Every structure is written in C-alpha cells, then in structure tokens.
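Bumping my old thread because nobody answered last time. Still need a sequence for this structure:
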C-alpha cells in the first residue's frame, strides 16, 4: 500500500506528493525542516521539535502558514493515516514557488509537507559494537553565517563532511568549528565520557541544539551521572574513555574509533550502555 503524505493541507498518495521545480526549497535550499520520531503511538518531544521548527523559520524570516495546533494535528494525522505506531516523521516548510531569482519576496505561499515512514539509519550490529568516525576537514558553518542552530534545507556543508566519511569508509564524521573546536557530527550531536563525567559541546560551539541531546543531558541528571556542556578540542576526543552520538534518526550510537584510534578500551563503554538503556526506557515511557 502506498504511503499517504500530508501536503499543503491534504493527505495525498506518495506518488502524487509533488513540489514545483520553481519552489525555492529546491532551487536554493530555502526552507526548514524537522526529523521527529513516534514511539508506541506517541510523538516524542513534539513540542521541542515544533519550538525548533518555528525558531528556525523565524531565523530565516519564513512565516509558517500554519498555526502550531494545526501543525501538531498534521503530524498526528499523517502517522495515524498510515497506521504507524513507531516511525520517523519528516516535517518540511519550503519558501514556496517563486521566480528564478533568489529573492524570497516573490514567493507568496510557503509549502508544508509531512512524511511518516520507517527508517533504519544504521545496522543493528553497529549499535552493539560501536561505529568508527573521522574528523572532517570541512568545518561546521560559522555561527555568524547561516547559524548551525537553524535546521535549514541547506545541508551541503554537512554533506561535504559526510562524503569525507564515505571516502574514509566510516558512517559519520565529526565537524570542527571555525575555531577548530568540536561542534557535532553531520547529523548527530556528540558526547564523550572522561573520568566518569559526560561532556558535550556547548550551543556556542556552533551546533544544532539536538532534541535528543537535551533529553540525554536530562537523563544524565536522572541517572546521577555528572554531565557538562563545554568546549571540546579534538584532543579531548582522542583521550576520551567513551564516546557516543545522539540524534532522532540514530538515537544513541556508541563510537569506538576516531581517525583510526581506538576510544578507551575500543569497546562500548559502561556509561554509554547505561545511558542507552535509560534512553530506550524513556522514549517508551517504561
Ligand atoms: N546535528 C545535526 C546537524 C542534525 O542534523 C541533527 C538531526 N539529525 C542532530 C544534530 C540531532 O538533533 P536531534 O536530536 O534533534 O535529532
């Protein structure tokens, strides 16, 4: 059975869900989006995702043509219409159809669509054994250019870093910021553990403020594991005892190698395991 996509107010079949080639979301990456998960029939951290979506839109001066309640309704309607209880949701707002120039003044009707589908970002064995990463030579966007806090449709910078990961035969890359400090991975936030303390780069280090990251920080508090947001250098990654990344798609993925070096023992660490279990209990509310 074909998927139903919510597009500008209507549920349409997947092969009918089409956007104009004049849409500036396509022509210029002019738009914003969210990746959200549904666990056991409940949208996980929906309000946090809507906050970030509306903030991203505001930052790029894009007015979302739906009030928040309707956006919430569109998300609920989409996964329910497809009979999902556990799935991934992609919510996208584009600048809409305009002329061939970049000026958004000519785009009068932003488009909104919501997709609900299944995803498996990484194979199951990788969650058990941990993944290898590299540090990319491409740096994260400068916070005073298009801020990394905006979840925009323009991911090219991260895509360039991901291509470096592909070339190196690993699934993810760590990006450094304009100062050479650690920011995040191409689609995930990064955490390390050192001497029993969990550490993750601060917002000011040029990151997308991940919803999963925030949940993870709260879980550290619940589990009485010290956790700090602070500037990290690549050196800190190299001498870490444990490392993991978080994201809506990836959830919690242990990292056991960086730039060919083993992290800690080279095995998934005990704090990573404890937090991963806590995360899975939390998302299903058990
Ligand atoms: N950083 C980047 C660049 C991302 O694209 C994402 C989302 N995939 C994340 C971090 C993680 O954010 P979240 O936990 O909200 O999915």
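Sorry it took so long. Here it is:
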């Amino acid at each position: 059975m074909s998927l139903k996509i919510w597009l500008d107010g209507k549920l349409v079949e997947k092969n009918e869900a089409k956007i104009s080639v004049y849409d500036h979301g396509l022509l210029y990456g002019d738009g914003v989006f969210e990746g959200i998960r549904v666990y056991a029939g409940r949208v996980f951290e929906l309000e946090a995702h809507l906050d970030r979506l509306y903030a991203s839109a505001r930052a790029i001066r894009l007015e979302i043509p739906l009030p928040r309640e309707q956006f919430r309704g569109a998300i609920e309607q989409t996964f329910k219409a497809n009979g999902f209880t556990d799935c991934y949701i992609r919510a996208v707002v584009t600048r809409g159809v305009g002329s061939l120039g970049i000026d958004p003044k000519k785009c009068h009707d932003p488009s909104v669509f919501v997709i609900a589908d299944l995803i498996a970002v990484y194979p199951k064995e990788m969650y058990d054994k941990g993944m290898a990463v590299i540090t990319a030579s491409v740096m994260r966007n400068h916070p005073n250019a298009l801020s990394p806090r905006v979840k925009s449709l323009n991911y090219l910078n991260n895509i360039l870093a991901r291509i470096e990961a592909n070339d190196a035969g690993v699934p993810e890359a760590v990006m450094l910021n304009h100062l050479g400090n650690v920011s995040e991975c191409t689609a995930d936030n990064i955490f390390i553990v050192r001497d029993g303390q969990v550490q993750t780069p601060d917002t000011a280090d040029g990151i997308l403020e991940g919803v999963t990251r925030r949940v993870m920080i709260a879980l550290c508090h619940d589990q009485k594991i010290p956790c700090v947001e602070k500037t990290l250098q690549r050196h800190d990654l190299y001498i870490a005892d444990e490392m993991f990344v978080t994201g809506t798609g990836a959830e919690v993925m242990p990292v056991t190698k960086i730039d060919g070096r083993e992290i800690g023992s080279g095995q998934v660490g005990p704090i990573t395991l404890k937090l991963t279990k806590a995360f899975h209990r939390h998302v299903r509310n058990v």
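Residues 35, 158, 184, 187-189, 208, 210-213, 246-249 surround 4'-deoxy-4'-aminopyridoxal-5'-phosphate (CB under 6 Å). Let me know if any region looks off to you.
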